[in-house]
Amino acid sequence: MSAFVNQLPIGLSIGAVLLLIALGLTFTFGQMGVINMAHGEFIMAGAYTAFLLQNFVLALPAAFLVAGVMGLILERAAIRHFYGRPLDTLLLTWGVSLVLQQLARDLFGAPNVQVPAPSWLSGGVGILPYNRLFIMALAIAGVVAVWLYLNRTGLGRRTQAVVQNRRLAATSGIDTGRVDMLTFFIGSGLAGVAGVALTLIGPVGPTLGTYYIVDAFLVVVAGGLGQLRGAVLAAIGLGLLNSYAEFWSDASLAKVIVFAVLIAFLQIRPQGLFALRSRVLT
Amino acid sequence: MIRMLRRNLPFATVAVIALVAAPLLLEPFRLGLLAKYLCYAIVALGIGLVWGKGGMLTLGQGVFFGLGGYSMAMYLKLTEAGGGLPDFMVWSGVEHLPALWVPFANPVFALVMAVLGPMLIAVILGTLVFRQRVRGAYFAILTQALAAAMVILLVGQQGLTGGTNGMTNFFELFGQDLAEDSTQRLLYLAVAVVLGALYLATRQLVNSRYGRLLVAVRDGEDRVRFLGYDPALVKTVTFALSAGMAGLAGALFVPVVGIISPALLGVVPSLELVVAVAVGGRHVLAGAVLGAVVMGYAKTAFSEQFADGWLYLQGALFILVMTLAPKGVIGVMGRLRRARTT
Amino acid sequence: MRISRPILSAALVLALAACGSGAKPAAESNEIKVGLLHSLSGTMAISEVTVRDAELLAIDEINKAGGVLGKKLVPVVEDGASDWPTFAEKATKLIRQDKVATVFGGWTSASRKAMLPVFERYKALLWYPVQYEGLESSPYIFYTGATTNQQIIPGLDYLKEEGKKKLFLVGSDYVFPRTANKIIKAYAAANGMEILGEEYTPLGHTEYSTLVNKVMQAKPDAVFNTLNGDSNVAFFKQLKSAGASAETMPVLSVSIAEEEVTGIGVDNIAGQPVAWNYYQTTDTPANEAFVTAYKAKYGQDKVTSDPMEAGYNAVYLWAEAVKKAGTTEVEAVKKAAPGISLDRPEGKVTIDGENQHLYKTARIGVIQPDGLIKEVWNSGEPIKPDPYLKGYAWASGLGTGQ
């Protein structure tokens, strides 16, 4: 029974991991409709930043910058030519992700590397270790920061305007190119931060990104494009579902169950939990 | 009449090269590789139809390919076991042949299932997804998740599917010894003929009223709906056709290559095929076929020279094609040709 | 559409021509070509590259000592790309096109299973250097890693001696862990041990909080770990942060060698036992030479591990068999091989004539804070390989197929 109760905080902590890796995507995919398959490699870049610095706390802002700048370069160099062609972007960024993986392998070697966890994160309360609690706190902080940015700053409101109607926003004098740049910078930077957090619980190697990318996209799809609250609820829901499905069956079956539930869910709400209402036709 | 001849001349040339020159010129090992690329080309043809013409980016085509392959492999394993249990079941501790396996002892059933099984799944998924107007990126991600889930499912059911190992160690097909070069040559010819026939049929289909409807759905789904058509139906049918092709390709692949395993139908192989189609030129069916053969060859050649470079090359090729030549090799060649004639 | 077809045909002709030109001239008579087939790219590259390096070292050494039958060994290296069908394809290429005398290669069971029919079909030799799940004995494969009775069963003997009665089984979802766990369950039933749980996770799985919760709730005396690759990193990190340590929750692993320890983080795994046949610290004269030579060739920071040593041995064993046979011809080598006995870094190994596996000494080690592994237990003498566990009464009915 207690194991059953334990699954609740575990589910929440899985949800926090999902939220953290998907938060950046709610920006790039959600706000801009760009499917960035290299998102996983930005997470990896964050993790390697932590490895290079060998300092967890310092790595958080550093990884944000590193991954953010990588995202910025990607956006300026390639993605901006692809707006309105999400499927092409998907394939393009997949190519980028392959190159980045191999680059990581050449730079850091194929074996996993070690990032020492700070000592103040060892130990825990009950079933939840401090590092899981830290990830939850980081996820919450990330959500709050994103919300504040989108709703309480001029830039954020401009971002929202561009999402809702790009051409109208442009006509109103918003520099959509700059908004795109900034959005991509923040979205990729958040991936970097997630990467640092993941060093606490998982391997740090060239294939790190591939382990998380599909899950991250599922969160955004379930949550609804560009919807912060959708992503939050979807991450928690998927986390709990994962946790209990695995508890009752096994890890393999749990993944299959999650997929089946997601398909069923999209039957009821095809646009995800929260849809952006729009009269724009395809 | 003459126009028709002219129209089909290039196809006939390719057909002659593929059917006559290749088996004569290539050593058996290389011919086997070519047969493998042609199997992938059949899948690519389906992707060309569903993505190039229909605008549905499917990242889960490997699933259908795998289902076809597994159907065939089950038949091969059962004939080889000759009434006993397939080898991997023995070492997985399975004692009785699972009910699912029993009908696959019949080659006709296995072949039919290799095509109908994938189509059925495509129809179910398509009906569920397209009815709800899930499209574009959503569809792509769902199919990708399907590939990921399918791999996990196959790996998890080791007694039923051979787990990560998949199934291998096949000896004969329809009484022919698979180790013989002559059998492999026949198989190659079979694959080439199937590819040619499917190519012609698909081309016919695309040029029909249905094909125009499909392109219309790609370019303006809502508008087609307003005109009184059912885009979901058109899309589902197309998706199912491509799934059937992938299944057939899988069934041919197994005796050619001699193995089927979850690694062949996961996220990455599914994506690689899409890459191939994009490189060849997705807007033209021939581009899809060309892309699959060229990329298959490039992969073999490259990994024989320097292994590490393949990911760079594949990635770079991809970025270049998408940014500079979204219409693929065929598009570039077309542009060159036009530039020369004007 | 009309533009495309001439180009298509042109491209096809080109591709065909390129395919055809792949053939290489026959080997010169004073050279012997040997194939090395490991994953140099993809997820398995991390492990397999080191085995290839060890094999290249052995080839170097043999060449420096005058080669085999007065001929130099020339390695032909191919990449299996962590993809099983590629292994089969490259094996075919090595045999049919390069006409190598033998192939050293593979790591995963799946890659071996994929190559097996190729080697049997063309009657060529494969030397497979990794511990595996047993239940196999192909006439065209020599197995230089441990089979189950040289690793899993000694590991269980060790746990039993340590008084661990309640086990929890954790493994990646593929053939080796499932077979290993079947054997463990049969052993437990016969030895009064209790299995509290058996869990599998997909390869590459990284979210272990639920599984760790299950383990912690079951309170076993020890965990028997058959996880593979990156999953080990996530598992040990998350197990440790759940408050388990080597003292409170010993985890015996069979797929973690010196190479993997750094990636997992020594802090997370120090003090945990592992089961192999060789460690970098194994105290034999041959090992001192091996470690020195390996570090000299590939760098002082490199470590040596069991599969590397097994690959290194494979080359020497094959060379020895060739010398004895006086030819590289496969059937003659097969005939000469049984009974060949060499002092290798892991101690004395002997090729068994019955199943082409090796007599090997089982060794249990404990991971040290410096990342190396210290031996704490060994089987005393080389154990006769028994891939079908015919010599163990409790193992009958495991579906061994023979």
Short description:
With 342 residues, chain B is mainly alpha-helical. Helix content of chain B is 77%, strand content 2%. Chain B has helices at residues 2-25, 28-53, 61-81, 87-92, 107-131, 137-156, 158-161, 181-207, 209-219, 221-226, 231-257, 267-280, 285-305, 309-324, 328-341, and strands at residues 167-168, 172-173, 176-177, 259-260.
Descriptive notes:
The complex is a heterotrimer of chains A (282), B (342) and C (402). In chain A, 74% of the residues lie in helices and 1% in strands. Chain A has 11 helices and 2 strands. The longest helix of chain A has 30 residues, at 2-31. Chain B has one domain. Chain B has 15 helices and 4 strands. In chain B, helix 9 packs across helix 11, helix 12 packs across helix 13 and helix 12 packs parallel to helix 15. The model of chain B has no long low-confidence stretch (mean pLDDT 85). Chain C has 2 domains: 28-146 and 278-360, 3-Layer(aba) Sandwich (Rossmann fold), CATH 3.40.50; 149-277 and 363-395, Response regulator (Rossmann fold), CATH 3.40.50.2300. In chain C, strands 2-1-3-4-5 form a 5-stranded parallel sheet, sandwiched between helices. The relative contact order of chain C is 0.13. The N and C termini of chain C lie far apart (59 Å). Chains in contact: A-B, A-C, B-C. At the B-C interface, helix 1, helix 2, helix 4, helix 6 and helix 13 of B face helix 1, helix 3, helix 4 and helix 6 of C.
The share of residues in extended strands of chain B comes to: under 5%
Total strand count of chain B, please?
4
What count of domains describes the coordinates of chain A?
Answer: 1
**What shape does the CA trace of chain B take?**
globular
Q: Tally the helices of chain B: what do you get?
A: 15
InterPro entries (chain B): ABC_transp_permease, ABC_transptr_urea_perm_UrtC, LivM-like
GO cellular component, one term (chain B): plasma membrane
Protein name (chain B): Urea ABC transporter permease subunit UrtC
Subcellular location (chain B): Cell membrane
